[in-house]
Amino acid sequence: MGYTSSIGLYVPDWTKLNWYSLIIGISLALFAFVTLFIDLAPYSKFGNRKFDTIPSKKAMICFYLPSVIACLFVQKPVFFYWHSHFDIVHLLNTLHFSKRVFEVCFVHIYKSNTNILTMLSVSSVYTTTTLLDLLVTRQMPDYAFSDKLFTCGLLFFFIGEAVNTYHHWVLRQMRMNNNSQEKYRLPRGGLFDYVVAPHYMGEQLSFIGFILTSQNVVALALKAFPLVYLSIRAKKTHAWYKAYLTDKHEKADIRKRKNLIPFVCPCERCKDLGKECVEALVKATMKAKGLSESAYNAHNLQDQVKQLEMEVQHIEAEMKRLSNRSNNKLVPMGQHSIYSNNPEENIYLGKDSNMLLSFHREDVNCQAPHFTARIATRSFERKKTSDPDETLLAKTLFIDPRSTVHELVDAFFKCDIVYNSLVHESSFRAKLSILQDPLLDLTTLSICCYVCTTPCNDVAHSWRRKRHLADFFYVKAKSVFLDQFDDYEKRLENMVSVCLLSRYIHMTLRFSDCCRLLEMAFQISLDLHKDYNAYFESETDKEVTGHVDEALFSRCYYLIVNMRRVMQFIANESMNEPEFRYPRWQYLVDESEETRRYVRLQNWILSIVDHPFMSAFKKQIHRVHIGKVCTLSFESIVKADQVIQEWASSAPDEFRLFDDYFAVEACKEIICKIQDPILLVNFCNLHVLQLNINSSMLQPIALNNESSQLAQCVLEHSLSRSLTGCRLLIYAIKQLFHACGCNTTCNYTVLAFDNLLYTFDMLMLLSLSPNQQVAAEAKSMMKICFEEIKNIRFMQGISIPKETSPMASIITEQFKDKKFDVDYYDKYPHPWFAMMFDAIHVITSCT
After folding, report:
1. Could you list the residue range(s) of the whole structural domain that residue 270 is in?
2. pTM of the shown model
3. Per the domain annotation, does 90 fall within a domain?
4. Could you report the per-residue pLDDT of 784-828, keeping only the tens digit for each?
5. Per the domain annotation, does 193 fall within a domain?
6. Which of 265, 288, 311 is the last residue of a domain?
7. 170 neighbors 202 (Cβ within 8 angstroms)
8. Are 251 and 303 members of one domain?
9. How many domains does the chain have?
10. Where would one find coiled-coil regions in this protein (predicted)?
11. What are the tens digits of pLDDT across the range 667-707?
């Protein structure tokens, strides 16, 4: 004898039919949860695979028509004068599935295919659950039905059918042209403005209505499957839209939509940012004011423009104040040294000098100067790169990504020295330990992306595997960054993430993306500088600090500004930035000794980078690098040389190696004994600085008769310094590679490779010299560089046949007009390394 449970649902006698029905219902519900981790049934937008050959319209008819037949098999539908509650339950089921068949035939527009296995499995599930539900419910005595629950069930059913039918009609209107080949667009109208699948929500309401009208535990089990399955399908539909939509406005809009239920849970963006979702409030405000969406947006835009104008005025005033700020605290020299002279001395254009020289640079050979920059410039021509498919890349991670994340984080803090100084280890690890999902944290994603991009020995994955992981982490990080880039409280985190992601963007040749992200980070840094300015003006004399954010900001600020300058150089743009002074770096109390040494080294470098005279001088010679002409007085050239020598001689004791950094034999003797990578990096930095200046003065033009002899002297001096610098750089880089083999910090290997590329760049320039002896020695050293590059561990797997190389044609065509297939290198795990290897191989084979 059955009975009514405490929740109002009838528990029937446990006959075989009832037992089998309950087991089938529970099994199907559990299987529905499994679809969270496997592919959904491939129909509708999830179909269209190569072996999906059955048109979706035919398959959908087969989904629902057997259920209609099952209803008719149980009994003939009773439309009026019902004798029992079951007659109404039976009629509701018949109407529901008949409506679905009608919509398939006359409302829906399908463009995809499915397969016979999917068609039969879905059809059998719907038919079986419907038939068993009706057979079990028919056994219930009529007195067991609650009229209140039954009335609620009817309301749920009719509301659900109305919601479902209306939104199916909205979808039809969107896809009226069945032959249209346009890309899939985000549906709009009705509840589509708030959720991704309101038609699923309507169908779920109908199934809740079935449960409340059937009023037995077996019906609850049987109808649980569509409730769970449609919820999961809505979630994956949301992910599908995120992966396949191409319009940037639609990609932003999809993150504001819920999966099924509007106005209850915060949208994805607000949830990620921990903010209150105001989308519903905005809609209510528009309705109360009687404004259309366009009118409301226009009114809102006017207010934002006014705020922006006020902010611009504030920034202009701040930049003016910064440009007048004294730099005395950043200069560790005596007041009377050449190094500390008044920066306002007017000697750059030589208005009071008769000894004027102009400098330029001409492409006189197929081997163009600054070939790395020229090749990178050609990379801007590549078609817009699309982000990897996040839904596919997610499969490359384990079900629990924490082990992978922790492995990458450990490698980051162990093997890096430059970029791990941007993240405070103890603070970050404390935050990581309490994160529910590390794949939603921007800093974590950026660190993982950075480590997978670098050739680190401590990550136990193949190069290809690491590339897949890097792609995945970049997609996730970029999505989070674009969500929170305007969040006031996350400005520093955004700056750190751009610094870390820039390595991936550079390595994958996405220079256009790099420019955009760096520009955003630069604007954020200018805004954030206002908050820290008082601290920097009062605390710059201290070497150690407990202010974590201020210390990290000064490091990020320096890297962002310099990376932005590199991108401007690659894009052949003039330096476009306000006058400013870099904040002095400080180390934190709990940072390692290696990080402290690196911070002290950077402060010494900052003293020359931030020197007023050298800043103005480098802006002048930057014109030469981008193909323009600069004019300097002879006095300014002499002073620049003296400033560099005085700066080198003033190096702190822990970093000083030589009295004369150009004494080749003495330098070689000491360098071969050095195993400390920081000392070798410091030596390389000094010669890169002097090479950057001297290489700009290899083609002087005398502006009058008096300066013609000076032009020859400047040329000979620049040639001598450049050639000597290249010799010593090659020797120091070889020793740095050797030291890296004895050192666990993998980042020094990448620094050595970067310096080797720069050296090769300078040697190409020297190989164009009319001085045959200089040109011959430069070509000989170019081949030495290539042999050294071939021996680098992460370059040994690269092999590019000259016959298929895209580089061969553009180099022999002098970098002119010839289309450059940059995408060719994307098949390698490190496209930048592959492209540079190819270029150097082609160039050395031509010399």
Report:
1. 3-176+187-288
2. 0.63
3. yes
4. 999 988 888 888 778 888 778 887 766 655 545 567 778 888 888
5. yes
6. 288
7. no
8. no
9. 2
10. 291-325
11. 888 888 888 888 888 888 888 888 888 888 888 887 777 67
